[in-house]
Amino acid sequence: MDLIFLIPFSCLLFTLSGAAIDPTSGVCYGQLGNNLPSPSKSVELIKSLKAGRVKLDNVNPKILTALSNTNIPVTITVPNKIITAIASNQTLADEWVTSNVARFYPKTKIQTVLVGKQVLSQPDNVTWFNLVPAMYRIRKSHGLFEHFYPPSSANFRSNVANTVIKPLLHFINHTKSFFFVDVYPYYAWASDPKNIDLNYALLEANTKWYLDEPVGLFFTNLLEQMLDAVYFAMKGAGYPDIRLSISETGWPNGGGVDQSGANIHNAAVYNKNVIKILTEIPLRGTPYKPFVALTSFISALYNENQKPGPETERHFGLFYPNGTSIYPINLSGKST
């Protein structure tokens, strides 16, 4: 199983709550559709999922207002397109926080602010080098891996390791924040279905296992293998104790004719297994970091018909745009 692929990441800037980590899975509330339910209807659907938190890839005032007084922890995101401007302008950073955080907090339980989405997966390397300065600006106002196999030898891409990643990890470590990663075993499996067992990618029990011989760790699913690759890469960069959080994970419920693994059955199996693994008591963690809590967001709330990319991108939802459940699921980990 020779695996080399990118794991995109988002960066935690700060949290507005010191509450203990709740492993209950959250949901990504995407809005790239012209036929989606209203924010108020969407909040009711989020409640029906027993979601532990909700993540927005942008700041939508109507959604943040609908989430007020619900006590649902909310994660918002500073958009990629303004990172460079904020990096050199404290006034702009102050205005962003005032308009998008202070305006709604604490009625809306904004718990986490992310700076950027999949920044290092984008070709605009100007944004790469403005990422950490932008994080400092915002803080003051209030695909990533080159080698993945085996996990213990994972390292960050050489073109960003020293100039971007190490300053970023220094900031996260100094502020006791989290390193957020988007982890999609589906894409790893789809890129090499002959060598990656489907059940291993779906996190099914009693499937094939993989031995990382240099460190003697056994992996029974691809998700934990990918997460431990991140841990080992951070260790190699000099930051072995930074905590991880899964900013996105999921499996498509549909796709093109050549995407046979993208279907409702597999989506339900994967997402239910993710929730089961992450909410186990006692905490499961990963082979390298056992008993460590991991927060997560399931992507996504809806099938979004305006998302760009291959057909699978528009089929990650837990609900159809009319509010009908695609398959039964409970994000709390109970009765899943």
Task: Compute the number of helices.
Answer: 10
**Total number of beta strands:** 12
Please indicate the percent range of residues in DSSP E strands (runs of 2 or more): 5-15%
Helix content: 25-40%
How confident overall, as mean pLDDT?
85
What is the CATH architecture annotation? Alpha-Beta Barrel
Oligomer class: single chain
- Major beta-sheet overview: 8 strands, mixed, barrel
- SSE string, helices as H and strands as E: EEHEHEHHEHEEHEHHEEHEHE
Tell me, what is the CATH class?
Alpha Beta
The N- and C-terminal alpha carbons lie at a distance of: 30 Å
Question: What class would the helix/strand composition place it in?
Answer: alpha/beta
- Radius of gyration (CA) equals 19 Å
Which shape, going by the Cα principal axes?
globular
Biggest sheet, strands in spatial order? 1-5-4-3-2-12-11-8
Number of separate structural domains: 1
Low-confidence stretches: 1-7
Pfam families: Glyco_hydro_17 (PF00332)
GO molecular function, one term: glucan endo-1,3-beta-D-glucosidase activity
Organism: Helianthus annuus (Common sunflower)
Keywords: Glycosidase, Hydrolase, Signal
